[in-house]
Amino acid sequence: MRFATKAVRYGNEPDKATGAVSPPIVTASTFAQEGVAKPRGYEYSRSGNPTRERLERAVAGLEGARHGLAFSSGLGAITTVASLLGKGDHVIVCNDVYGGTFRLFSRVFSNFGVTFTRVDARDPDAVSRARRARTKMVWLESPTNPLMVVLDIRAVSRSAKKDGLMVVVDNTFASPYLQNPLKLGATISLHSTTKYVSGHSDMIGGALAVSDEGVYERLKFLQNAMGAVPGPFDCYLALRGLRTLHLRMDQHSKNAQAIAELLQSDRRVSEVFYPYLADSPTYSIARRQMSQGGGMLSFRVRGGYKAAERFLESLRLFSIAESLGGVESLAEHPGRMTHSSLPEKERRAMGITDDLIRLSVGVEDAQDLLDDVRKALESI
Ligand SMILES: Cc1ncc(COP(=O)(O)O)c(C=O)c1O
Question: Are residues 105 and 252 in the same domain?
Answer without folding.
Answer: no
